[in-house]
Amino acid sequence: MSEYQYYEFQAIDRPLTREEMAELRSCSSRARISSTRFTNEYHWGDFKGNSTEWMKRYFDAHLYTSNFGSRVFSLRFPIAWMDPKTIHPYQVEGAVEVSKTKSHLILSFLLDTEPGEYDEEEGNDGLLADLLPIRSALAAGDRRALYIGWLGGAQNGLVDPDAVEPAVPPGLGSDGGSLDALIGFLNLREDLVVAAARNSPEASPPPTTGEIATWLAEVDGKEKDQWLSRLLLADDPGMRGEVLNRLHQTSDSMQSRGKSTRTVESLLSEADNLEAERMEKQRQEIARQEHARIMALAGQEVGLWQSVIKLSDSSSSRYQETAIRTLKDLRELASIRSDSAVFLEKLEGFIELRCRKSSFMKLLRDAGFT
User: Fold this and answer.
1) Rounded distance, CA 334 to CA 229, Å?
2) Nearest to 190 by CA among 69, 95, 257, 272
């Protein structure tokens, strides 16, 4: 198996300077580097930079995948965007980790699997872009991505089976492009996500203009003046996230949380039960479709037997295998219609005519006709 690693970094809040781009170039002569991105694939050798340091110094988002079985998705936030206490209940070593600089929090979602379990060389292009809306959602008080990260840790045995799940954020069962991308990135079981969402309340609508006006009226005037000054004097992309963070901290609708009464063991068991139910429904549907297909052959028996005779005369293995499949359909149709005796009588006569065709007789024996 050949080596494969993919690195992508993106600057969002400010572009890189020429000096910073030169620093990045010194670490790679082949990477695609712009004022907002660094992207490179490695099929031999290794990344010469330090992902942690690059996130601290240059970038706001990072994606890493490899056929070693490792995946990393990291986001950097200004500290004012998010209270670290809101992240703490969802932290799991090896799944959801947080580091801190003087000005920023760096949140990482991680996955370690068996080497070669996924074809990592496909699907990386555009993946970071699909995941990036999670940054704005977290800044606006949406904690679903944090819960999904914790759920990945629970699925992979990184959380004590007796531990109680953290509060389930609202709207976990809602469709969402970036959340779906994160679920896929962390290879979460579909049934585990469905089981978890059973404890998630419906998402509240965003605050109205009137609700925001009411909230702003209660904010200290000096603080509002500072916000307005920052808006007018500089390009401050972090300000919106900071203000939204203040809003959701004081908004009952955005702080609503689901029940958190299940242990990891019971949550995983619930997912297993859902999977068993889903698989049984799929089995029943496949059986229903197969029954309908066989019944559609009723009244065509004469033509089907003629087809079997013609196909079995051929020396082509493909035609002979088609004859066997048709015989199986005729046998199933006879069983459903309680005509097995008639089928066996015709089969016996057919075998007598083909007994010298050794290759075809072997196919009949392997299929249980003799």
Assistant:
1) 84
2) 272
Q: Does the model's pTM come out above 0.85? A: no
Q: Which residues contact 40 (CB under 8 A, 6 or more apart)?
A: 6, 7, 28, 30, 31, 32, 47
User: What does the alpha-carbon distance between residue 50 and residue 62 come to, in Å, rounded to a whole number?
Assistant: 12
Which pLDDT score is estimated for 234?
64
CB 100 within 8 A of CB 106: yes
Of residues 286, 321, 327, 285, the one with CA closest to residue 305: 327
CA distances from 58 to 17, 21, 240 (A): 10, 9, 21
Q: CB 88: neighbour CB atoms within 10 A?
A: 11
Q: Give 98's contacts (C-beta < 8 A, 6+ positions apart).
A: 84, 87, 91, 105, 106, 107, 108
**Mean pLDDT to the nearest integer, 38-45:** 89
Q: Would you say the C-alpha torsion 160, 161, 164, 166 has a positive or negative sign? A: positive
What pLDDT, in 10s, does the model give residues 126-141?
899 999 999 988 988 8
Q: Give me the numbers of helices (H) and strands (E) for the chain, helices first please.
A: 17, 7
What is d(CA 235, CA 15) in angstroms, rounded to the nearest whole number? 12
Contact 350, 343 (CB under 8 A): no
Calpha distance 298→333 (Å, rounded): 7
pLDDT of residue 121: 55
* Half-sphere exposure (Cβ direction) of 246: Cα atoms closer than 13 Å: 15
Residue pair 8/39 in contact (Cβ under 8 Å)? The answer is yes
One-letter amino acid for residue 204 of the chain: S
